[in-house]
């Protein structure tokens, strides 16, 4: 059996996430405390008690999800469940790199906090948007986006679900055109910036400067890169891809296919939500997908693996 750990991105957050881990495991307490020290504010208080609005701010969301995701991977490791390969959706790629020993946890927490700030600063709130396009093929989506100024397909999540991003007026125009072209649904997403679009170029530049201050080492096992859709282990490639990832599309279908080709037959989603398990079902129904987001799901997944 080859196991892939997969890590969620922004949108999976929920107030209360990680609390039962913190209450029951020393390893979880240690990582939350380490994150608080690195950030200079209490991410655990925000996760456990914070308002939904505060947690939704991208500079808070990103470190919060990373902390909970890394805790899950550590708890699985403590139970003898280790990854042979890993990947993460957008922000989740940083969690995967921590799990693979490529980036130190405390460095990653600060990096994704700054990444969130840079992304929000790149496009003022209200000027950028994202929309999920359901039930239309990627080629048609790409073609129609090319006809609209400053709009592009940015998340290739699974067959039948692709996300577009760009200037708000352009996204609204593209949504109308995509519906007319046969999309079953086109939903404007409740996000504060057009992530992974070319409009994020200023964020990518600032992120490159921050990554230069951090030690990035070769990964202990292959990581599926959002930018290339291929498996990477080299520190230089990882660093380059993380910068490019900020203002380029997430090739999630390609990431899952690369992990499958490697031989992964069990995928464990580590962190809040079950979004990636849902994508897996659309990509390949034969993939065995499990998730761990709290103690109940941890016990259920451990029981399934031992069976």
Q: Describe it for me?
A:
The chain is an alpha/beta fold. About 50% of the residues are buried. The chain folds into two domains: about 230 residues, Malonyl-Coenzyme A Acyl Carrier Protein, domain 2 (3-Layer(aba) Sandwich); about 60 residues, Malonyl-CoA ACP transacylase, ACP-binding (Alpha-Beta Plaits).
By DSSP, the count of extended strands is: 10
List the total number of helices: 14
Based on CA atoms alone, the radius of gyration comes out at 18 Å
State the order of secondary-structure elements, H for helix, E for strand.
EHHHHHEHHEHEEHEHEEHHEHEH
Q: For the record, what is the CATH homologous superfamily label of the largest domain?
A: Malonyl-Coenzyme A Acyl Carrier Protein, domain 2
Could you tell me how far the N terminus lies from the C terminus, measured between alpha carbons in angstroms? 13 Å
Main β-sheet: number of strands, strand sense, barrel status? 6 strands, mixed
How is the largest sheet built, in terms of strand order? 8-7-2-1-9-10
Poorly predicted runs are: none
Mean pLDDT: 96
The CATH class label of the largest domain is: Alpha Beta
Strand content: 15-25%
Oligomer status = single chain
Per the CATH scheme, the topology name of the largest domain is Malonyl-Coenzyme A Acyl Carrier Protein, domain 2
Percent helix: 40-55%
Question: How many separate domains?
Answer: 2
Shape: globular
CATH architecture field of the largest domain:
3-Layer(aba) Sandwich
């Amino acid at each position: 059996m080859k196991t892939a750990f997969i890590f969620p991105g922004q949108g999976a957050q929920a107030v209360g996430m990680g609390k039962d881990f913190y209450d029951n495991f020393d390893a979880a307490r240690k990582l939350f405390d380490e994150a608080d020290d690195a950030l200079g504010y209490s991410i655990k208080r925000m996760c456990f008690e914070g308002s939904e609005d505060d947690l939704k701010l991208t500079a808070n969301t990103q470190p919060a999800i990373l902390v909970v995701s890394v805790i899950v991977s550590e708890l699985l490791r403590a139970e003898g469940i280790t990854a042979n390969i890993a990947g993460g959706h957008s922000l989740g790629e940083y969690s995967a790199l921590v799990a693979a020993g490529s980036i130190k946890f405390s460095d990653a927490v600060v990096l994704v906090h700054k990444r969130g700030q840079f992304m929000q600063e790149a496009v003022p709130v209200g000027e950028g948007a994202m929309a999920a396009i359901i039930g239309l093929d990627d080629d048609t989506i790409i073609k129609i986006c090319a006809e609209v100024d400053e709009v592009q397909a940015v998340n290739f999540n699974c067959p039948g679900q692709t996300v577009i991003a760009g200037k708000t007026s352009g996204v609204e125009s593209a949504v109308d055109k995509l519906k007319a072209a046969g999309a079953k649904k086109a939903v404007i997403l409740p996000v504060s910036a057009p992530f992974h679009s070319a409009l994020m170029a200023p964020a990518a530049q600032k992120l490159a400067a921050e990554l230069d201050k951090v030690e990035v080492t070769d990964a202990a096992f292959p990581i599926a890169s959002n930018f290339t859709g291929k498996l990477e282990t080299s520190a230089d490639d990882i660093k380059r891809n993380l910068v490019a990832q900020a203002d380029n599309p997430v090739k999630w279908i390609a990431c899952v296919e690369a992990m499958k080709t490697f031989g992964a037959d069990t995928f464990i989603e580590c962190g809040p939500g079950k979004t990636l398990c849902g994508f897996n079902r659309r990509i390949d129904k034969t993939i065995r997908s499990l998730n761990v987001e709290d103690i109940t799901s941890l016990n259920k997944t451990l029981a399934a693996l031992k069976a």
